[in-house]
Amino acid sequence: MSTPNGNQLGIYLKDRRSRLDPAAFGFTGGRRRTPGLRREEVAQRANISPTWYTWLEQGRGGAPSADVLNRIANGLMLTEPEREHLFILGLGHPPEVRYKAIEGVTPRLQRVLEAMEVSPAIVKTALWDVVAWNRAAAVVLTDYGALPPAERNILRLIFSNSRVRAAQEDWQSVARFVVGAFRADAARAGAVAEIGQFVEELARQSPEFEALWLANDVNAYGEGVKRLHHAELGLLELEFSAFAVDGRPDLGMIVYNPATSADKDRIRAYIESRVAVG
Fold it and tell me: How big is the CA angle at 115 (ends 114 and 120), to the nearest 5 degrees?
């Protein structure tokens, strides 16, 4: 059966409310001809006019506001992907990004990281806190597990950690690049307000960071080549690529692949030696 092309928002709203159990929300009275919540019950949960909600399902009354759609999304217990779809149907674009702080990643994503045995890989937040990493990252980049959580921040390490600073082939270029990419990531994830205190603190600690921040440059991480002076392996050349984590605009994965077979062999041998000792 074909789906009508007209009132897609109304069709979607009706479908979502038909899937909800009235008893789960305390609506137990009266005989029901159709499954799910009634229109007036959705309106009650969303704290909007029953007439206005009815018009939305019927394709009348014009475009709803973002506030109304958020209320309806909460009333219908929509997931984040469902909420995004609701906004696209109602307003023609996704909702404004809302930053959510996290402390870790799913076990499945951690297994993805560990599957890359000789490619250092990390997952960072929009505030550039490293929340997950694999063994290769721990032995080639930084042993994040040995650091307090508050210090597992890429910008803190670049500007405040002498070992990390010395390992960069061209620290000034790296510093300028990460500050611009950090600014872009925070804005994209809706975390501009959240970074205020962090930026002020880092600016007090590092005049170099303050100068770069005031330059207002913006960069995209994308992909490139990183040359790193490792304390035991010497100079390494790593090709990096950045990936979005689907459904999580506040998270990004960065994978560093050895640029040459020689670099790959050295990293593999070093990791194996560390495992044998440990």
Answer: 60
